[in-house]
What does this fold into?
Amino acid sequence: MSHLAAKFLIKQVLHKPSSVLGLATGSTPTGTYENVIEDHRKNQTSYEQVQTVNLDEYVGLTPTDPTSYRYFMENNLFQHIDIKAKNTHIPNGKANDLQAECSRYEQLLRELGVDIQLLGIGRNGHIGFNEPGTSFQTKTHVIELAESTRKANARFFDSLEQVPNSAITMGIDSILQSKEIILLASGKNKANAIKQLASEQIDKFFPASALHQHPNVTVIADREALTFCDNTEKLQTV
Ligand code: F6R
It folds into this structure.
């Protein structure tokens, strides 16, 4: 799964060296980044002209906080490839004026234009940190994290109390502006979400269903995440 996802990113960069890649954090894409790094070392695929935009960042965490998404990206990808620091963009969760930061980030997304956006999916169907009920028209915004999301992400912190209550996230509309979208899902705990996504029903309370409104989405899932999918004949298996 990770190898295939990395191939999408690498192909994009080889085709257009100045590509804008939309990136995600969390457990799911770490294998993808490992594959990207390995390819960079073996085949010298260059990221010198690439720009990246991340989906989200916790409110209140500094970039040097080991639980911040900036720190995650530096550790898991950026410091292992030849990307320029100034070309890596992540919302600033420590901004004094969070609304101004959201507007700045949305403007940046518009100016850059994302070529390919990598997504994970929450058990509740969230994409980015757009929790169930978020309007599909949203641009980059501050969101209060669902209790279930804070619990799911508590594994990265010392305790649940330390998980921030809010985050800055690209909105659903911001995500849909990307030219191409790759959604990754791994493990049994994503099986219900993938079943619901495959049902093709558009539902505001299942944010990932907004992806049915986009013309170029690929879902890459492992067998466990497909456990409850009965219409896998529609899916391409690798
Ligand atoms: C991460 C993000 C989230 C995660 C989702 C799944 O930047 O925006 O939507 O993709 O919470 O997280 P994992 O991969 O840890 O299961």
In short: The longest helix spans residues 98-112. The two ends are 9 Å apart (CA to CA). Helices lie at 2-15, 30-43, 69-76, 98-112, 147-153, 172-176, 191-198.
